[in-house]
Every structure is written in structure tokens, then in C-alpha cells.
Amino acid sequence: MSLLSLKGLSKSFGGLMAVNDVSFNLAEGSILGLIGPNGAGKTTVFNLITGIYRPDQGEIRFKDTPIMGLPTHRIVSLGIARTFQTIRLFQNLSVLENVLSGWHCRMRAGSLRAMLRTPGQRREERRALERALEMLEFVRLRHEAKQLAKNLSYGNQRLLEIARALATDPRLLILDEPSGGMNEQETGELILLIRKLREQGITIFLIEHRMSLVMKLCESIVVLDYGAKIAEGKPDEIKQNPRVIEAYLGSEEGEGR
Amino acid sequence: MKRTLLMFIAPTALFLLSPLVLNPYWVDVLNNVGLYAILGLSLNLIVGHAGLFNLGHAAFYAVGAYTAAVLNTRFHVPVLWLLPLCALSSGIFAAVIARPIIHLRGDYLCIVTIGVGEIVRIALLNNVFGITGGVNGIVGIDRPSVFGIAIRNPHEFFYLIWGFAAITVFFFHRLENSRFGRALNYLREDEVAAEGSGINVAHYKLACFILGAAWAGMAGDIFAAKMTVISPESFSFWESVLMFTLIILGGSGSIPGVILGAFLITGLPEVFREFANARLLVFGAAMVVMMIFRTGGILPPRPRTYPDIDAPVGEGRP
User: Fold this and answer.
1) What is the CATH number of domain A2-79+170-249?
2) Which one of A59, A163, B55, B307 is least enclosed by Cβ atoms within 10 Å?
């Protein structure tokens, strides 16, 4: 059964066709990679799924319900969480509070109940704290809980973004270049982490430039070039695909980009 | 622990007893400080926590004060009974005003709120709906009474105003340390990331505007009862600037900071009355120095504390 399906998705900015008639499905429990040269429209696809942009055409279905046009926070509460290509943490708040933001959409108490500090509200806060600490434990950042987010190393900031996304209790986790800025060892740990997530039933969809990671991790890969899907398949097939090689290396006539 | 408690209780007790030794003039100064502390705390939700620049807070203060004045002089409703109604009218006014402008960022929002403040002041001057009394304002507002005890002189107002300030601190402290308070901080730090983490950014921006305005409306009610006469000049742009400045100076997003700011901004000029002409100069210089050396204000917010961060837990599982 497919958890997420895109059908005929298009989006243009002015005259630029950023995403052009893209369709594919994401099976529940799988790890799908989205690759392509710079400017191929990968991040735009992510932004369309998460509701930051509205598609011009096409359909996005999550668990068989259309989600186009829903505001981002609604899409998150339906079970799609994401991280950002350029790190977007709440820099001046603590690591713990960054993660707490993820559980926000699973809480209910509003301002009045907070002012009165009702038993239900306190229970909810305790639960949120437990959950956030569990997530920090999961990415091994618990010892940094009180630290401000901006004081973490680059690799740890990436992990914190993942923890924040996980705290929303997602079915689908969208990672935009998760290994960006990480060294080899950190990347190795990231691969283990993503595998562990998948074992726990979370479907993973990632953009990645580091081919070693993509080939090792993904069960299937979608390749974009100039906004259009040029290939889809298993890692081995993608490696051999002449159109993919052309897109990355340029054609033989020397029209390389 | 005992020591900090003593450090806190002793000055508080001293402060609460101060009206007994001060003359009415100085008690009235403290009352004004109290009113600005309440106003500052209400604006602090918007400016300090959510990071939305609102330079028109006097408009909400005015709506509350005029609601109280009109209903009290025409229908003789006791002023303190009007507190919820003043909160309601200011809150509704804020909801109507903020809805179309809330998506604006930074200085754009700031300019629009200045406009709102001026529109309200000029509308009051022009005797809008024929009920605001124009330039002369509204006279003959009743004094408040609490459990049958009439509140007339500054000493009695001292306890009413600072009592309300204490209630404000109590509730706002809880609010800060909740899902609501955190949400405001998230959207201040990064709107896109907040929305992407499942926070309804538009809702929280509007909610903090409404709540801050409602609280300013209640402060307006108390102000009307204290003055018994209100007129548009009490709600000028300068008032909004004072409320804004005291937050930035004291510590934006910090309750003790805002209260300190209220003392500095409204209390100090009274202490140095001889130098009243230099007031704006000193304000300006203080702000410049702040911006260079202590961007968070004199008492910047302390990080929230959470129980059992340090306690070990079992293996994490998402």
C-alpha cells in the first residue's frame, strides 16, 4: 500500500517550471531517495508535499486523502514531518525546547488552561517532556538538553532537527540532505539511525547528494532533472541508467552543466 | 534556598509597606509605575515573546478605558465589574484589527500598528459615535470599590493596582511556561520552522495580540477609575512608545525585566524632576547604550527550567 502518492505534480515560478508533471508512489515502510543535479526541483517537491507551496496542477495523497492546500501545520499533525536543507532550529532556545516544539501538535491545552494550570494541562506537559527526552535519547543528545541549539556542532544540529521532526510522531519523515556538513563517521551513525527508524515503522523520504549514503540506504530512487522525473528504480538500476548518467555528467557532445 | 527566599520576601514586604511612609505624591508615582508594569507585561506577550513589533498598544488601552468610562457614566455599572467587559471589547477590537495585518513582518507591522494607534486617538478626539466626548473626554467616572470599601486616595489605589499587577505576573508566568508561551517563542525564532514543526503560526500571532490587548483593556479600566476623567491625550503615540521602550530596556520576554523597565521609565523621571528637559536625551542615550552592550535588556529572560532533565531514562523509542 502506498503511504504517499504524487500524481502529475507541477509547479512553476514565473516562467520557470520547477516541477513538471512528476508522479511516483512511496510504499509504507520503505526508504525512498530523491536525487538530481542542483536546481532539479527536489526541495520544491518537498515544499509541495509539506504545504509550503501549493501545486499548480496534480494531486498529493497521504494515506489516501488529498492534502494539497492544507496549511503546513495541519499536514504535520496528519503525520508528515520534515527537516530543512539549511538548518532551521530555534537557535536561541534550548535543545530540549527545540524538541518540545514537535510534540506541540499532539497537545491540546490552550492559554486559559495554562493560566489555570489544570491537572490535565500538567499531565500533558509532563508527557511532552518525557517524549522530548526520549527523542533526545534516541539521537544521543540528551546530555546537551539544556544547551542552546546554536551551541551545538553542525552534525548535532542536524540530529536535533531530526529529533524535533520525530517528536511530532510522524508516519512519514522527509529529510532534506540529512548528511550535509557531517563527516564520514557521523554519516555512518546517521545511516544506522535512519535504518532504526524504518524498523520502527516510519517511512523515510530523503534528498541526498552523498551517493554512498543513497545507494546504501535507499530501496528505490527517483531522479529529477529540470523538474521532470527521468528515472525511478532500485539503486543498481539507477547507477546504470544512461539518462541519469547524462544528467549528472553531461552528454557526450559536451553540453555538460 | 532560604537565603533567596529572604532576598525576595524582604524587598516585597518593604515595598508593600512603603505607602505607609510615603506621601501621596510618591504613592501616586508608584501607582503609575504599577499601571505601566501591567501594560508592559501585556505588551510583552506580543513584543517580547512573539517578537511582533506593536507600537500601537495605547489603542487597546484606550478602548478598555473608554468602554469603562462610557458604561460607567451612562449605565452606572461599578467600574471593577466592568473588567471582563473591558477585556472583551479590547480583545474583540484587537481581533478585528490584527486579523488583516498579522502576516506583516517586522517594521511593516510596526508602522501599521502606529497607524492604528493614531486612528483610535483621532477617532476619540472626533467624538466618534457621539459617545467619547471629543477633546474633553469623559468626566465623572466612579471610584472603584472592593467588597464595599471605596477606593479613593493613592494609598488605596496602590494596593488595587499592585494587586492586579501581582495577578498579572502570576498568570503570565504560568502562560510563559506552557505550550502557549513556547509556541510564541518558536514563531519569534523562526516562523517557517515553527509552522513546519506543527505550530499554527497565524493562530498564535492572533491569540497573543488578542490576549495582550484584552489585558491592556483591563489596565485601561483601572486607569479610568483612578483618574475619574479620561481624554484622548492620555492615549497618545508617546504612551505606546513608553510601553515599548520599557520592555526593550528592562528585558524583552522577561517578567522581572519588564517590571524593572516600568520603574526606570516611569519612576526615574519623577526622581529626577529637575532634569525633566533632558528626559528624552537620556532615554535615547540609554537605548543606544543598551543596543550596543546588552541587547537582551537589563534583565534578559532566564531559560525555562524543566524537572528531571538530568534523570536517566530507558532506551528512547519514537
Assistant:
1) 3.40.50.300
2) B307
